[in-house]
Amino acid sequence: MQAATENLSIIRPDDWHLHLRDGEVLASVVGHTAQQFARAIIMPNLRPPVVTTALALAYRERIMAALDKAGVEPGRFTPLMTLYLTDNTSADEVVRASESGMVHGIKLYPAGATTNSDAGVTDLLGRCAKALAAMQRVGMPLLVHGEVTDPAIDLFDREAVFIERVMLPLRNAYPELKVVFEHLTTQDGVQYVQQAEGPVAATITAHHLLYNRNALFQGGVRPHWYCLPVLKREKHRLALLEAATGGSGRFFLGTDSAPHSKGLKENACGCAGCYTALHAMELYASAFDSVGKLDQLEAFASLNGPAFYGLPVNQDRLVLQRTDYVIPQELPLADSTVVPLAAGESLGWKVIA
What average pLDDT does the chain have? Predict the structure, then answer.
């Protein structure tokens, strides 16, 4: 990493957890990610979900068309596709996905865990055994939304219980399966990833590094800070920040940027998700700067993810400048608008190249 007094230059980063949606929403947001990242793991929870390789490749073509429409130069950004794991995902489909060269992970949504997760898995080890065995055999990563959906479990405890009920039995049954514990939110999760045997890693969002659950309630209920997994206590935020900046190769960048229209967020039953694609690297730089660890940002954002996924490191660079940057209040989103996280607030960094 090269750092000057006012500028910070790092290898261009990748986003290992991103929601782009589809249609006009996709066209509205894809350019924001392409401005900052070279690649991104694209979440498959569309309606209907992306459950086959053929559907993933068709979705990829729509993303490429949206990039072209947005004026993104060819080769600037590469979408890395995923499949949505269901109770019916076959071993043959896992092999097809691997052989395509375009599908880089299969996503576990426990049924009902988050946005568009109704088709998710009901019994991972019971219903998905053949698919998991095939994934372990071909080296296809399992990307997990790490929360149980048992209504008897407190919302703030669902990640810790997921470790006990799902991750430990999964690792015992498939010790060589590559697993990414996505959008980690707790001290419990950090400790598990640090100590787990075998190929286990985790993504961490910028909002879980910067904010605790108080952010949801400052001056009233603030729906644009509502995401799943939900923001946690300050001790968990500090544990995540220590993990992200601590030099371990098991933690890397995943924004979980999730566009929802302003009306769907500011609603009696508001959607979960924070929109951070516009200013992701400014948010991450602010988090790392807050603990004097800017020297660790390049490894977290640009090196650890490619190493885990077995992909080459990007060749070009991204430059941030230390300067005031006021986050816009709203952005266009299809025929509506989206409110970016921390709209109207000022950050101390701005991407300039």
Answer: 96
